[in-house]
Amino acid sequence: MTFGNGCHLHLIDGSAFIFRAYHALPPLTRKSDGLPVGAVAGFANMIFKYIEDAKGTDAPTHAAVIFDHSSKTFRNDIYPAYKANRPELPEDLRPQFPLTREATRAFNLACIEVKDYEADDIIATLARQAREAGGRVTIISSDKDLMQLVGGGVEMLDAMKGLRIGPDEVAEKFGVGPDRVVDVQALAGDSVDNVPGAPGIGIKTAALLINEYGDLDSLLARADEIRQPKRRQVLLDNADLIRISKRLVTLDANTPLEFGLDDLEVKDPDPAALMDFLSQMEFRTLTRRVAEKFGTAVPAPIEAAAPTAAGTPEAPAASATLPFRPDDYTCIRDAQTLTRWLDQARARGWVAVDTETTSLDEMQADLVGVSLCIEPGRAAYIPLGHKAGGDDLFGSSSLAPGQMPMDQALALLKPVLEDDSILKIGQNMKYDFKIFARHSIRVAPIDDTMLLSYAMHAGLHGHGMDHLSDRYLNHSPIPIKSLLGGGKAAITFDRVPVDEAVKYAAEDADVTLRLWHLFKPQLAHARVTTVYETMERPLVPVLADMEMAGVRIDPTALARMSNAFAQKMAGLEAEIAALAGQPFNVGSPKQLGEILFDTMGVPGGQKGKTGAYATGAEVLEDVAALEDHPKAAELAARVLDWRQISKLKSTYTDALQSHQNPETGRVHTSYVISGAATGRLSSTDPNLQNIPVRSDEGRRIREAFVAGPGMTLVSLDYSQIELRILAHVADIPELKEAFRKGIDIHAMTASEMFNVPLDQMTPDIRRQAKAINFGVIYGISGFGLARNLRIPRADAQGFIDRYFERFPGIRRYMDDTVAFAKDNGFVQTIFGRKIHTPEINAKGPGAGFAKRAAINAPIQGAAADIIRRAMVRMPAAIADLPAKMLLQVHDELIFEVETGAADALTAIARRVMEGAANPVVHLSVPLVVDAGRGASWAEAH
């Protein structure tokens, strides 16, 4: 067919398909020879889906898959640093590139690449030729660099999302039409491709300038007319780089091609050739689907090669598809059987381990049994503490028959659990580590499937075992509730009959080992090996030791505070009743809403589904700012005070007393490693990280955390660490210089923004600058800042606008980060931690939150990485001191040390914390740690 009017050309961005396939799917190797083929499998499935979806009334008449020939092109002659910052290809992806070309040809699609040119240049050339011949073009890609081609019969299609991209969508993304995209890109640059652009100018600013001056050449010619001094100077100083950037981002629509459009006519695949390729790749599922499509027989499978060496994890597919058979699990009741299993673990070099106990509180739980698994499907349970009487809560306290003596079993387990040559694999291994530690067994070395998942999948889903099993093994484990029951009738695990316990407990170890086989090989593929090996895995014993050490509290002080809080609440209740003109239950949102919006006539009240008015903190803060309803404003402010005191009383001064361990006399919090996608730790039972410090009452609670006799508490706290990281990653010269000189960063920001000399700074102006400094890290809006500062929204937005004008690098960082998240589905910290952003392309109310989270994640995540790195190094650094690390509260570490060694501890701990980024990242700003000490946490902080 001669290409012309009525013809429709599809141009598929082959590289985009490859990388999407590689990052979306778990690693897969060909069983016959171990060749990595995961990306090829994904690519082939995507091509097959494309062929099926492309049929119909708008089917292409011509199509081609376009690839990059190599990483070096003519652009490197123009600018040698072009794309020089891109990481090397993963080792398991490199050999798959030629196979994707074979897959393309097997599907009988034109496969095109040209030396010295990028795939985008080839696409630009073919699109031009097709348009000139009178045809239509659909570019199947979401690559922003191709958007300059849209219009005049050319559109783009994001096949993954089913979204078509025309001139309107391009204008929405770039702020200009397709014909001016290269001008905007030249100004904004591209950190991913190392296109320099104009420092400090992002996409939005670039679009404003191009729309005002018409095009890039006119802008540069008239740069001296620009009113903003910094912006004017940036353009004047970087004009040559900007022109080079335009050459880099402009696609070459005259790439030399050795074929014509007629050669790209769509043809049906040759079934024999396609089946032969799929069979060689050993893609059984796709082979079967294609065979059904063409009505041909499925070729006989190629036999897998023999296993290479003992200790090589089996292919993930094998362990993932092997059926679970709970009835086949072993119950180990004697030393001879246990010894045999442990010998097999020694021979393997690994064993999955799990414990069953009577409680989730590791410091008080009794050990009931231990599970082992040495290969998928082969698991065992060692019952140790099951009581006679079955599930009768009031049954005998004597042990059920057929169990090993606990001392004997632990004596046999201890050498294996402490053997450095045997890897112990667990799910949430910190729990089991502490259970064994209470029995004088220090488990090492370990792997943790929860943390493997967290390192790779943070932000995508939870990391609990049941969820991971459902998602990755397609298996729903036996629910614990089916054994323990629920509510008041629930029993503890020691009351579960042994035969039932075996199936449940051994399955946990079996699931854990299968997840390990699946996840561990994926670390390198996901490029998070360093994150897992240097921050996640080694943190487990560090946190376990901190949790077991606990922190001493003074229950008498807490009781006094509870009484004082009760009296203050009563006083506030009287004030509130007087303002309302009647008494009511301050703790009732329904009654409060009626008082404010019905009785007192405050406008804007909104009722929920229950018919009650919303009276959350944000609503009350808005009411408290109303100038024309002074009584209601005062009442709302007093209710906020009452709620804060009430929470302090119930959550801390009352509850902390009940959390005191009767054996140790201390409070033992538990840290959650995988709770926050950014890497921040959280603490539970009790939560010691959310004790308010902005109010006098909140700070008083820290007085109840005290040092033991002869001991001192030492607090070391990173100073403004997130602002320092922002200055580094966004490359803000003014902030970096201020941090280097030790200048008050908030006063400096206020001086920059409001043109107030430092010696004339007022506390109010500094407070506003501080709110913006910290707010901008979290992507605060004008509305949010207005609420925080209790100022008009227009004033707040004006502050933010001036902030970005003073520090344009921050806006550029934000724009680049959001763009990276949209293109890749994740953001990264400077230490390589990945935080996935699945909602980043969402529309509607959640879109703003997703963007703010993406902007903040690399900053907050880097701060979390730094303190993690410090914590991992700390035990060895202070090993010779009479000191223990007790608590981590965001950017603060708290130690208990013999009073005479406080100076030595402070010096060593500060050195570790201030050098925690090295040698992975050399920050361009210093890390500064503030230190304090005292008999209580309040004194130390």
TrEMBL record:
Protein name, per record: DNA polymerase I
Domain DNA-directed DNA polymerase family A palm: 698-901
The protein's assembly and partners: Single-chain monomer with multiple functions.
GO biological process: DNA-templated DNA replication; double-strand break repair
Catalytic activity: DNA(n) + a 2'-deoxyribonucleoside 5'-triphosphate = DNA(n+1) + diphosphate
Entries under CDD domains matching the protein: DNA_pol_A_pol_I_C, DNA_polA_I_Ecoli_like_exo, H3TH_53EXO, PIN_53EXO
Record keywords: DNA damage, DNA repair, DNA replication, DNA-binding, DNA-directed DNA polymerase, Exonuclease, Hydrolase, Nuclease, Nucleotidyltransferase, Transferase
InterPro entries: 3'-5'_exonuclease_dom (IPR002562), 5-3_exonucl_a-hlix_arch_N (IPR020046), 5-3_exonuclease (IPR002421), 5-3_exonuclease_C_sf (IPR036279), DNA-dir_DNA_pol_A_CS (IPR019760), DNA-dir_DNA_pol_A_palm_dom (IPR001098), DNA/RNA_pol_sf (IPR043502), DNA_polI_H3TH (IPR020045)
Keyword Transferase attributed: yes
Organism of origin: Phaeovulum veldkampii DSM 11550
Gene3D superfamilies noted in UniProt: 3.30.70.370, 5' to 3' exonuclease, C-terminal subdomain, 5'-nuclease, Ribonuclease H-like superfamily/Ribonuclease H, Taq DNA Polymerase, Chain T, domain 4
Domain 5'-3' exonuclease: 7-267
Signal peptide limits: none
PANTHER family: DNA POLYMERASE I, DNA POLYMERASE NU
Occurrences of domain 3'-5' exonuclease (ranges): 329-524
